[in-house]
Design a protein that fits this description.
By secondary structure, the protein is α+β, with helices and mostly antiparallel strands. The protein contains 13 helices and 16 strands. It folds into 3 domains: about 110 residues, no CATH class; about 230 residues, no CATH class; about 80 residues, no CATH class.
């Protein structure tokens, strides 16, 4: 192949204008939604792809398709909801608009093989998989008892053991087979969002969640041992797996098993934009998926500083709180009712689901500020009345003779999981945690792609340069 033709984004824009005027003389012939896509790709500058992938092409042979046009065409197929490469290649030949927006001359568009050849160049390894084909069978995920619940973790290592292990691990992006793909995503999407002020890398508030990505209807594996010939039908010998990086997981939103990946997304909650996507096997529990993604993000994006994390109850584990406190990161994590809480605090007080102390009479205490220097929160009796200048306790069974009633100080170090700042009962905590829905909103946009057998690129979303 010849060297890649590195054209500028202005060349692409001139090409689009010229051909739209030629083939679509009446602008009203195109729907408004189509014009929205045209405008989005008009600003989407992918010219850096030609530079980043230049060393993936030989200097000899026939001229290749321009990499930026191949990438743009693939992203267009996502916006136009065409999930099959074969179908998209056919649509490029039939529909002039698809060819023009991709940057191809009408009647001269790439075939199916050219798309797959381009995708291979994004993968920096001769092996298309990260795991060996032959490996032991994994522990099967069990169906949860209640509808809508997440499956229990099948990990062989606890969060308490995995977190310090990953914290000490230094990940290098150049050692990863997806290095080229990540560099394109960072250069053309993430860095552009930072430059436009959409993502503040010095003060990130990360919202996180995982979503199923289906790759096939069933797990394809076969025996390579001779146990069956010897009359053993249920052996535990190693198997040959066609998709070794995938396994079987549980989709709690659809209450069904699926085979594929778990896509764990780290998202900027202030802008609803993706920061770091990471694929794991389908059985990976979210509590482990976060750690795998988070520490890789810290290695691949060392200049990004996280100030807050917004996580659901699947991440409610004490090692999280202890680590975030050491790193001056404020956690906003929903409590998991199954994780438990101390039955009694300060001899005669219990702790409610959101970390608020409950007095012996069964009343939730009223928050009365926080003493930062002493690292504790103060709660006071909710039955104290200030009527007519008099202060009195209106409780039928007062638990203190003090003038201002019983007070309780929750020491944050006693249990950082339950006693956090801001407390879960405060408006500040609820307002901040509501931003975690950005994870659901972004992942919902990938809903149609879960049905595709080909995992979609995580670099595309809404707006200019595919991000906003």
């Amino acid at each position: 192949m010849l060297p890649v033709n590195c054209g500028s984004h202005a060349d692409y824009q001139n090409f689009v204008i010229e051909n739209l005027r030629k083939y679509y003389t009446d602008p009203d012939a195109l729907a408004r939604s189509t014009w929205d896509i045209i405008e989005r790709f008009w600003y989407l500058d992918l010219s850096d792809t030609d530079v980043l992938l230049a060393d993936k092409y030989s200097r000899f042979g026939p001229a290749p398709r321009t990499p930026s046009c191949m990438q743009r065409s693939y992203l267009l197929s996502i916006d136009f909801k065409v999930s099959s490469i074969t179908e998209w290649a056919a649509q490029l030949k039939i529909n002039p608009l698809f060819a023009i927006l991709s940057g191809f001359q009408v009647g001269d568009t790439p075939g199916v093989g050219t798309f797959y050849d381009f995708m291979k160049r994004l993968w920096d390894s001769d092996d298309p998989h990260m795991s060996p084909h032959i490996h032991p069978m994994k522990t099967k995920v069990k169906k949860p008892h209640a509808k809508g619940e997440k499956a229990a973790s099948v990990e062989k290592i606890t969060v308490a053991a995995l977190l310090p292990q990953l914290e000490k691990t230094s990940f290098s992006i150049n050692d990863q087979p997806y290095a080229s793909l990540f560099k394109i995503y960072r250069k053309e999407f993430l860095d552009v969002s930072v430059e436009k002020g959409l993502i503040h890398k010095d003060n990130l508030a990360l919202a996180d969640d995982g979503t199923p990505v289906v790759t096939s209807h069933r797990e394809r594996k076969k025996c390579i041992c001779k146990c069956k010939e010897n009359g053993i039908s249920d052996c535990n010998c190693d198997r040959y797996f066609s998709q070794p990086d995938c396994d079987i997981g549980w989709d709690s939103s659809r209450d069904c098993f699926y085979h594929g990946y778990d896509l764990y997304m780290l998202i900027d909650s202030q802008s609803d934009l993706p920061v770091f996507p990471h694929y794991s096997c389908a059985s990976k529990h979210d509590s482990h998926g976060f750690l795998q993604a988070f520490f890789r993000m810290k290695s691949f994006l060392p200049n990004y500083q996280v100030s807050k994390v917004l996580l659901d109850s699947a991440h409610d584990a004490m090692p999280y709180y202890q680590y975030f406190r050491r790193k001056n990161i404020t956690p906003f994590i929903d409590l998991n009712s199954k994780a438990g809480r101390p039955p009694v605090y300060k001899n005669d007080f219990t702790i409610d689901n959101d970390g608020v102390p409950v007095c012996p009479a069964g009343h939730r205490m009223r928050r009365d500020g926080i003493e930062v220097a002493k690292g504790r929160m103060k709660f006071k009796c909710p039955k104290i009345s200030h009527t007519g200048g008099w202060i009195s306790c209106t409780c039928d069974n007062p638990c203190s003779n003090a003038k201002y009633g019983r007070t309780v100080h929750l020491v944050l170090d006693d249990n950082p999981r339950l006693f956090n700042h801001p407390p879960r009962s405060s408006k500040e905590w609820k307002l901040e945690y509501n931003a975690r829905t950005s994870a659901e909103r972004l992942i919902l946009s990938y809903g149609q792609r879960k049905k595709s057998f080909l995992p979609r690129s995580s670099g595309s979303s809404r707006g200019r340069n595919g991000l906003r």
